[in-house]
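Closing statement on the 6-O-phosphono-alpha-D-glucopyranose sub-project.
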Amino acid sequence: MCGIIGYCGHRPAVPLVVEGLRRLEYRGYDSAGVSFVQSGALHVLRAPGKLAGLEKKLEDENVFSATTGMGHTRWATHGAPVEKNAHPHRDHEGKLALIHNGIIENYQEIKAELCAEGCEFRSDTDSEVLVNLIAKGMKLHGGDVMQALSWALGRVEGAYAIVLMSMDHPGTLWATRVASPLVMGIGTGENFFGSDIPAFLPYTRDVVFLEDGELVRITSGSWEVFNTATLAPIAKEVQHINWDVQAAEKGGHKHFMIKEIFEQPKVIRDCLLGRIDGGGVRLAELDGVPVPERLHIVACGTSYHAGLWGMYLIEKLAGIPVQVEIASEFRYRDPILPKGGLVLAISQSGETMDTLAGIKLAKQRGLPVLGLCNVVGSSVSRESDHVLYTQAGPEISVASTKAMCSQLTALLLLALYWGGKKGTLPAADCARMVTDLAAMPDVLDDALPGLRREAQKLARHYAGATSFLYLGRGMNFPLALEGALKLKEISYIHAEGYASGEMKHGPIALIDPDFPTFAIALDDELFPKVKSNLVEVQARAGEIIGLTNEGLDLAVEHRWNVPRAAGPLSAFVTLPALQLFAYEMADYLGKDVDQPRNLAKSVTVE
Ligand code: G6P
């Protein structure tokens, strides 16, 4: 998500920090800022938009004597991308400055408490609440920054990587993390923090990877790591990395796509932040919005496939009739949109022209619009009446992967939320699903390396194929469509996704020994049906990859057992398997995985 750099050393800190932010630009951001202590004062400069805006402001300042500083590029998750929400944030007395990547889940409660104590806020962010809480901790602990941090962080829930500076300690920085990336760079007479290694790569290749619950203090000549809760010292190992700049940007992965596929456990965790509560689902964004009588989902590409998956789920769990439409069709139809309905516009970028046109049409017809998107402040979020953010962080690879995972998570939350409100979903069933969903990131963390190895093996075997059929039934049908789309997009191998039961109405004519089928045949109530469809393929000598679960009676050429997951949660395992197969095929064939020919990340034309 956001880019972070912190520096304590002997060089002018501000130019170094700005240069570090430039090296983090590839991640995408919507505003930037720096802070430093100079002549006894804590300075904070911020600007919306690209770094040029910040540099313009810095031109008018003499910033060359500070040798400690920090900078941030913000990728908004709370509050619009405007200057007041840009980082660093100061506490209300202006003595501390904080940069933050992540989401503080319980910031509203803490904000209310601090407001009652007379604290004034200038932004809409959770980060400003945190810096004020640390300031309160300083008062409670006689000005001791470490104690204050330990106390304040003990009170917050959520995910964060933060760097803190204090007017009273101009040569020191503190940092800590929980579930958000943060690394430390160790130099000679200088030390660094970064959200990613490229932030400081020109200066040092000696790094310390920080773990959750570790608190670090650096000066130009020292670095110390402590347990955040107990403040007991922790010994850490310095690692020397040989990554070049490009590898560092990709976190050591070969492509952004594989990096993003592996980020999916975190994506689920981040999407759930602040939204599950005991066994229930809390969607503050929908407070006061009535449960729709009908839902019209409008989207394009991968987001459309997520919408199709959502249809099965919302109809089943919440009993709401759902229609899913390709936005470019919806906008030119004369759709019937009776009152009481809601349009759900799904878009990662929030800038897809056809989806925006769909929103406009819905509004002309008097229907409220809920936007489900990733980019805060995007056109979809501005045009919609209500917005639910997927909180997936920037997606760089053109072929969408982690964004779909976050959309599925959000759609599942919506189904549970509406099911609970309408009473169609018993509380105990909801609680079970919430528990299973919250456990899914760990399941996936364990499963991903094995899934990748299997995908590599299969890719080598099938790389000569010129066409592929993807089959799935029920909730696995949209996933079959997505698997085929991924393969087409990045490996340029023709692929068609089909509902297994529909295969006999056409595609079966194509089956021969050179036309392989990728079948999703998991342990669910439709398994026997899928199995008989596959027998039809085998009768025509077609080879099959069967994505299935251990113990199921399925005899195919390549059986790919994946971990069992309850009901709709199987999608969170199936999706990465499909993505990894496409990825490994494309990589094996030497294709330009992150920038496939003819495709754009954000389609802002018709
Ligand atoms: C483009 C991208 C796809 C994406 C689609 C919809 O075609 O290449 O990956 O799924 O647009 O984009 P959106 O940002 O609206 O989800």
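The chain has two domains: 3-249, 258-588. With this model delivered, the sub-project is considered complete and its resources will be redirected to Aim 3.
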